[in-house]
Amino acid sequence: xxxxxxxxxxxxxxxxxxxxxxxxxxxxxxxxxxxxxxxxxxxxxxxxxxxxxxxxxxxxxxxxxxxxxxxxxxxxxxxxxxxxxxxxxxxxxxxxxxxxxxxxxxxxx
Length: 109
What we know:
alpha+beta; Alpha-Beta Plaits; four-stranded antiparallel β-sheet; two-stranded antiparallel ribbon; 8 strands; 23% helix
């Protein structure tokens, strides 16, 4: 299939409503029929403001988090419409990709 890989960049302590932003993004993706998402935490990074974000031994709230999804063009349009409607403020990278599953069991994990 042709579509997009979209990666959102946030931090552990960023929230949208009552949920951490990364959890809210995953719930919205699932509700839109996007077949999967992956959350990856990073040791450190910095954002558009130049402020450094890192995971400290005692405090993980500022730890950088990436949420990556692969989806069709229609799903991407629906997801961005939802983000706009909810006024969700989150940085993303969107790249065209080809995606699918291989193997006899369809790659179920």
